[in-house]
Amino acid sequence: MQSWIDVRSDTVTRPTERMREAMLRAEVGDDVYGDDPEVNALEREAAERLGKEAALFVPTGTMGNQLALMTHCRRGDEVILGDDCHIVWHETGGAAVLAGVQLRTVESRLGVLDAEAIRRRIRTGDDIHCPRTTLICLENAHSNGRVIPLAAMREVAELARGHGVPVHLDGARIFNAASRLKVEAAAIAAEADSVMFCLSKGLCAPAGSLLAGRRDFIERARRHRKLLGGGMRQAGVLAAPGRLALSVMSRRLDEDHENARWLAGRLAQLPGFEVDPAAVDINMVWFGVPASLDTARLMAALETAGIKANPPENRRMRIVTHHDVDRAGLETLLGALRSVL
After folding, report:
1. Coil/strand/helix, residue 30
2. What protein family is recorded (predicted)?
3. CA-closest candidate to residue 144, choices 120, 185, 177, 121
4. How far, in whole angstroms, is CA 30 from its chain's centroid?
5. Which CATH class is domain 252-340?
6. How confident is the model over 93-151, as pLDDT tens digits?
């Protein structure tokens, strides 16, 4: 079987041998009854790591975000969030279908939201013509690969508290953000009332995410998880590698970030490629390819070299580094790109 160099996303990471061993030996129960010891331990450890009262194990990050909307909001309420965030772009309109909420967007500056722009959008009073503002959503690290400064998050959080509006953080890659900011994840989570993060994005767990927040919030979210079909049974076989993702793999992300910066520096040396190495915050490298470069030829060359990559869109391409891609693999990638120039 061919061994591919897969740079499409950090969701493609495979479980480590230690994770596979943990899955084999996991003590399991029925999580819907609350008696799966591995799941219970994972939820306790996740809550402690993020400085929250409780956490809930869910199958995916999208479900975690949608549960937050369903639990914070009532149908017909309004949520303020960035115009380029994951909830708006990549969750298949779930906010409308599941939570029944209206999304009111704010222009994002590389993921940073202007607090004054948010303030102008918060609905105050009891005008029967207007929806209620019941949630503000932030994202860090942003799905564009940028890390949001804590000061920018804090400004929004203070504004929200002043209006009695909770904040939800899509922290799918919160540990990448923490690594970049050189803080613990709890310092980022402190600026939000609820936080979702993924175990399967760069942390090598085969599946699973956590939603964390106040204990009463998580108990309400647990009911909504059941409603969406997310009540898993012997889920300890997934929680066991998740615990290793949380305790071990989240501590090694600097290596992926260094590889991404190294790659960006090499791409900048290729004629016609447009990349700013200083803009690489985490493990994502975005770059422009030459206008003369034929996409079909490019993708064929990468496939021939044993590389899986997403094709460029509007001449912009993304490469994602992770645990399963080393410098040798990135050298192979660079060789394939040189071959088509």
Report:
1. coil
2. Belongs to the threonine aldolase family.
3. 177
4. 27
5. alpha beta
6. 999 999 999 999 999 999 999 999 999 999 988 899 999 999 999 999 999 999 999 99
pLDDT above 90 as % of the chain: 98
Helix (H, G, I), strand (E, B) or coil at 89: helix
At 1, is the pLDDT very low, low, confident or very high (cuts 50, 70, 90)?
low
**How far is the C-alpha of 334 from the C-alpha of 131, rounded, in Å?**
51
In the chain, where does the domain assigned CATH 3.90.1150.10 lie? Answer: 252-340
In the chain, where does the domain assigned CATH 3.40.640.10 lie? 16-249
- CATH class for domain 16-249? alpha beta
* Six-digit token string for 122: 């918060």
Rounded to an integer, what distance in angstroms lies between the CA atom of residue 155 and that of residue 336?
Answer: 45
Integer-rounded Cα Rg, in Å, for the chain is 21
pLDDT digits (tens, 9 = 90+) for 35-90: 999 999 999 999 999 999 999 999 999 999 999 999 999 999 999 999 999 999 99
Q: What CA–CA distance (Å, rounded) separates 321 from 306?
A: 16
Q: How far apart are alpha carbons 77 and 94 in whole angstroms?
A: 14
How far is it, in rounded angstroms, from Cα 41 to Cα 105?
37
d(CA 100, CA 103): 10
Assess whether pLDDT exceeds 80 at residue 226: yes
